[in-house]
Design goal:
The protein is α+β, with helices and mostly antiparallel strands. It has one helix at residues 2-19; strands spanning 29-32, 41-44, 51-57, 60-66, 71-78, 82-90, 95-96, 99-102. It has one domain: Sandwich (Immunoglobulin-like), CATH 2.60.40. 17% of the residues lie in helices and 44% in strands. Keywords: Signal.
Length: 103
């Protein structure tokens, strides 16, 4: 299932960029999980929508979800601290490209 989510996020991101459609300013953010430094990444929803995200960085990658107005974990492996880029699809069909840092 996680592979499907990642492929869906990547395909949607490519279509969105190709079509030049805009995205809303509200959306998810990515940040390292202080409880598991260097190994996990959190996805945070700041609104009433849930998000499915694919993440990739110089030290690893993964996929994850965030419930509405809450924090979810990316099922990922990061082998150290570094920048991370994501592609997320919201439950409303919106597409976001958050960036963050795995710690």
């Amino acid at each position: 299932m996680n592979g499907f989510v990642l492929r869906t996020v990547i395909a949607t991101a490519a279509i969105t960029v190709a079509l030049g459609t805009g995205v809303a300013s509200a959306g998810p953010t990515l940040h390292g999980d202080p409880a598991t430094p260097g190994t996990q990444l959190n996805v945070r929803s700041h609104d009433q929508h849930s998000y499915s995200c694919g993440t990739i960085g110089v030290t690893g990658g993964g996929v994850g979800t965030a419930p509405p107005n809450s924090i979810g974990q990316s099922n990922s492996v990061f082998f150290g601290s570094g920048p991370v880029q994501g592609g997320c699809v919201g439950s409303d069909g919106s597409v976001h490209f958050p960036s963050g840092h795995a710690h």
